[in-house]
Design goal:
69 residues, mainly alpha
Amino acid sequence: MQTPTFTLASGEVEILTSVIHAWCQANRMDPESACARAVTATAIDLMEAGFRTRESLSIALANALAPDA
């Protein structure tokens, strides 16, 4: 997993973990799996891009992971 090039405040770490936890539950995915780690890396990239609220990160992550229509 890539190391972030920015700093997360403690509240932002909570947002990241809650979004990843919700994604893992919704997709019946083990949080320790390679897939979940890849999703976490994507979420970190999205937070670095400015999606720093729970709602905006959840939506951006869903869009980033959606198959091409």
